[in-house]
Amino acid sequence: MKLSSCGIDCESCEYFINKKCEGCYVCAPKGQCVWGGNCDLYECAANKNLPHCGMCDDFPCDMLKEWASSEGTERIENLKKREELQ
């Protein structure tokens, strides 16, 4: 499973599958997220020198919960699994 910094499973994302996105580790530093502009979640993790939100002491923070709430808890659950592996 290839996960973004906020827990999206890239391998099941239509943008990644259709090659409209190379993943946040490539697109987000350039401010080229598929929805346009910068990703606050990526920037927050990067500013803390973390590979993803799951490694943060504040995980899951309010910003992540709010962002992920529109699509259920899958992203947060994915990050919990990543946290256990690291």
Please outline the helices and strands.
Elements: H1 14-17, H2 24-27, H3 40-47, H4 62-68, H5 74-85
How much is the average pLDDT? 88
Q: In percent, how helical is the residue content?
A: 40-55%
What low-confidence regions span 5 or more consecutive residues with pLDDT below 50? none
Described by strand count, sense and barrel closure, the largest sheet is: none
What pattern of helices and strands is seen along the backbone? HHHHH
Query: Tell me, what's the shape?
Result: globular
What descriptive keywords fit this protein?
single chain; 86 residues; mainly alpha; 5 helices; 0% strand
Give a nutshell description of this structure:
The chain is mainly alpha-helical and 86 residues long. The protein has helices spanning 14-17, 24-27, 40-47, 62-68, 74-85.
Describe, in plain words, how this protein is organized in 3D:
This protein has helices spanning 14-17, 24-27, 40-47, 62-68, 74-85. It is an all-alpha fold. The longest helix has 12 residues, at 74-85. The chain is globular. It starts with 13 loop residues before the first helix and ends with a helix. The model has no long low-confidence stretch (mean pLDDT 88).
